[in-house]
Amino acid sequence: MSHGVRGTADRPGANGAAMDDRTPGDGVTVLIEPRTLVRECIALSLTALDPASPMETFPDIAAWARDGDPLATTLMLFCGSAHGSLSDQLSPHISAAREIVPDLAFAVFAAQDDPLQASEAIRLGARGYLSPGVSLEVTVHALKLIRAGGIYVPANLLGAGRPHDGAGPSDQQLLNLFSPRELEVARAMRKGQPNKVIAVELNMSESTVKVHVRNIIKKLKVKNRTEVAFRTQGLFLDGA
Questions:
Q1: In this protein, which residues make up the domain named HTH luxR-type (predicted)?
Q2: 53, 167, 184, 211: which has the fewest C-beta neighbours closer than 10 Å?
């Protein structure tokens, strides 16, 4: 194979492709995909443009747990299907992976540009929804953003999948609903910053940050920090 990716024959015991120039201690991105051709094509394409980011591929979670290095995995990628809900497709795999690495971040390679599916992915806790409507170069940059703690959803899907039937306030309503301090905390949450970092940057105690985070989640009517980041996209037009 080319592009710095090698297959199972080159790495005894592995069920996927791995970077040749992996540096010890680097975080690894893992792609879980049962179709051999699909996972090899994705890995080859991504590593061709970003050879510095270690990547491995496996057909399933069991193979990753057996033959990979779960503790070195910092991001897991799943391929979604156009048929059925993402929750039905991915929840068992996400749960199995997080039994091994509880805080493992994950993102979804989507089969279609579907705003409702993008919203569902975020509700599941995904850090990104990588749609087929964006270029390979954009996908590489999106993965870098996700690895750095950010959230990625294609601009054309932002907000399109959000209900406006009372399930949550509009962006303008949020500006009026949040206090200035809550907006600052929400901005920091969008950057993927943990409470300790937010406390230092905003010069407040960590317990105060926790109160703001709880209030933000309650006001947005969401379940987790990833949903907060997705839901507040329209509030920070400067990209922060």
A1: 171-236
A2: 167
